[in-house]
Specification:
Shape of chain A: globular
Oligomer: heterodimer
Order of helices and strands of chain B: HEHEEHHEEHEHEEEHE
Order of helices and strands of chain A: HEEHEHEHEH
Number of strands of chain B: 10
Distance between the termini of chain B: 26 Å
Radius of gyration of chain B: 16 Å
CATH class of chain A: Alpha Beta
CATH class of chain B: Alpha Beta
Strand order of the largest sheet of chain B: 1-2-3-6
C-alpha cells in the first residue's frame, strides 16, 4: 500500500501528506515510543495515540513513513510542523488503535 | 506518610531543604510547609506530573502559592477517572495536625492531557524548575517512554544512578530519594554548594552545576 491510501482508501484525516507515493511495507502499533524505536521496521506505518512532536522524531529515527493518530486525539501545531519538516505523513482518525490496525492490516495483505 | 512524619525524617537525615512532590497533586503542601518550617527545614513546593507521554516530571516552585496554582492547572487536566482506594490506596490531603481535609476523587496516577513541552512552558512561566524525573529508570521516564532524551530547556535531569549512561551530551544531574516510604527519605540526596538554603540558591546551583551527589551512609 501507499502512504496516500490512508486517505483515499481508509478516509483518515490528513494532517501532513509526507511522501504520499511512498510504499508502506509493514505496520506497528504501540504507544510506547522506546518500543517503537527498538522494534518498528523501515517503511512502516505507526498506529498510536501519542500525538506530540517527539513521535515525529522517533518516526524519523526509525524510518517510519506515516503515523496514524487514533481516538480523535488532536495533533498539536508543533507536531504538524515537525512532520512537514521531516516529510513524515501524519493522519488522524476517531477510530481506536485496534480498528485502525485491522484496517491497515487488510490493505497490507 | 504524613507531611509531619516526612519533616521529622528530614531532621533525622540532616536535610536542610526538602521538596514534597506528590503524583499530580499539591493538597498536602500547606501541611508540609508548616511541618518543615517548624522543623527548621526549608520547604519546596513541588509536584511530580505524569505527562501525556506517561513520563514523570518533577516541577518545583518558588513558593506555596505558585505550586498550588500550578497544581490546580494540573488537576484540571487529569481525566475524570475515579480512584479505587482498594486498588490504589487512599488519596488524602491532611492538615498540619494530620487531620484528613479531603479525599481526592480523581485517580492521581493517571496521565494528564498535557505534553512535556506544555508542562515545561507553564512551569517556567510561573518561575518554576522543570526536572524530568528518574530518567535512567525503565518505566515512566523520558528514556522508557520516548527512547531518548529530547532537546528541551530542562533545569536538570533527575537520575537514580549518578553515573548512568545517558544519550545526552551535557546535562546537570541531581539525585533525590523519590521516597514513597518514610524509610526512603534521604536515601539519595544532592549537596548544593551554597551558603544559604533557598529556592533561588537551588536554581542558581542547578544552572551552575554547583552540586555533588550524596547517598547514605555518606553524610555531611
Amino acid at each position: 500500500m501507499k502512504v496516500s491510501d490512508l486517505k483515499t482508501k481508509l478516509a483518515y484525516e490528513e494532517v501532513c501528506a509526507g511522501n504520499p507515493d511512498a510504499e508502506i511495507r509493514a505496520g506497528y502499533t504501540s504507544d510506547l515510543l522506546s518500543d517503537v524505536m527498538g522494534n518498528a521496521l523501515d517503511d512502516s506505518v505507526l498506529v498510536t495515540i501519542q500525538a506530540h512532536k517527539n513521535t515525529v522524531a522517533v518516526a524519523t529515527l526509525a524510518g517510519i513513513a506515516a503515523v496514524v493518530i487514533c481516538n480523535n486525539r488532536e495533533v498539536p501545531a508543533d507536531m504538524a510542523e515537525a512532520a512537514a519538516d521531516e516529510e513524515v505523513a501524519v493522519y488522524r482518525t476517531t477510530k481506536n488503535q485496534f480498528t485502525v490496525s485491522c484496517e491497515i492490516g487488510a490493505l497490507l495483505d | 506518610m504524613s507531611p509531619l512524619a516526612i519533616a521529622a525524617r528530614g531532621i533525622e537525615e540532616g536535610l536542610d531543604m526538602m521538596a514534597l512532590s506528590d503524583h499530580n497533586a499539591v493538597g498536602n503542601l500547606p501541611a508540609f510547609f508548616c511541618a518543615c518550617e517548624a522543623a527548621g527545614i526549608v520547604p519546596v513546593g513541588g509536584i511530580e506530573v505524569t505527562s501525556e507521554e506517561e513520563a514523570h516530571v518533577l516541577c518545583l516552585f518558588p513558593d506555596l502559592e505558585k505550586a498550588t496554582e500550578f497544581g490546580a492547572w494540573i488537576h484540571d487536566h487529569l481525566p475524570d477517572i475515579p480512584n479505587d482506594p482498594e486498588q490504589f490506596g487512599d488519596q488524602v490531603a491532611v492538615d498540619e495536625n494530620e487531620e484528613v481535609l479531603y479525599e481526592e476523587p480523581k485517580l492521581l496516577i493517571s496521565a494528564v492531557s498535557l505534553n512535556l513541552d506544555e508542562i515545561l512552558t507553564k512551569t517556567h512561566a510561573m518561575g518554576g524548575l522543570y526536572i524530568p524525573a528518574h530518567v535512567d529508570k525503565p518505566r515512566f521516564s523520558l528514556t522508557s517512554q520516548l527512547g531518548f532524551i529530547p532537546k528541551m530547556d530542562y533545569d536538570a535531569l533527575e537520575v537514580v544512578d549518578f553515573n548512568a549512561r545517558l544519550l545526552v551530551k551535557k546535562a546537570v544531574r541531581i539525585g533525590n530519594s523519590d521516597a514513597h516510604y518514610l524509610s526512603d527519605v534521604g536515601k539519595r540526596f544532592t549537596v548544593y554548594e551554597t551558603e544559604e538554603a533557598s529556592f533561588e540558591a537551588l536554581r542558581d546551583c542547578l544552572h551552575r552545576g554547583a552540586l555533588l551527589p550524596g547517598s547514605r551512609p555518606y553524610r555531611f
